[in-house]
Amino acid sequence: MIPLLGDLLTGGGAAELTAAVLLLLGGAAFLICAPVLALIDLREHRLPNRIIYPWALVTLGLLPLLGLLLGDASAVLRAAAAGLIWALVFLGIRLLHPPSLGMGDVKLVLILGIYTGFLGWPVLGAAVVLACLSGGLVSAALLITRRADRRTAIPFGPFLLLGAGLALLLS
């Protein structure tokens, strides 16, 4: 995301500058919502709609405009597909085994899929891998240190946010 932002800021045109501002606004929304959601999920094991829904609206408003300004309709379609695919996979897991994931996680990955999918399938893949890897490592450490057992509920939202944030930052 940083190279794209640099290219937009140095592109010289009004469309590029406007796109850079929109990208910065989307990044600011991520930086505001992600830590708040992570902390709430760690404390309360929930991802509140009063944060998820406005963030989703901001995301759905900014990214299509960004795609339009960049002349990249395929990025917008890819972002929508990525968000839907990730959310449908999580919804399937939720329906098959409800204790595994909450509906907040399903809604969250829709947003995170849109963010990462906009930048490309490899970014989405990196977000998924980083989320699962970080969640798995922390869970394993908790099990090894006996601070958790196999029935302990561990919120997945912070790891989803961490994985997506790292994937976006490193892309």
TrEMBL record:
InterPro entries: Prepilin_IV_endopep_pep, Prepilin_peptidase/N-MTase. Signal peptide: none annotated. Residues 29-138 form the Prepilin type IV endopeptidase peptidase domain. Keywords: Membrane, Transmembrane, Transmembrane helix. It comes from the Bacteria. Gene3D superfamilies: 1.20.120.1220. Belongs to the peptidase A24 family. One of its GO terms (biological process) is signal peptide processing. The keyword Membrane applies. Pfam families: Peptidase_A24 (PF01478). The chain crosses the membrane at residues 20-40, 52-70, 76-96, 108-141, 153-170. The keyword Cell inner membrane does not apply. One of its GO terms (cellular component) is plasma membrane. This is Prepilin type IV endopeptidase peptidase domain-containing protein. GO terms for molecular function: aspartic-type endopeptidase activity. The lineage of its organism: Bacteria, Bacillati, Actinomycetota, Actinomycetes, Micrococcales.
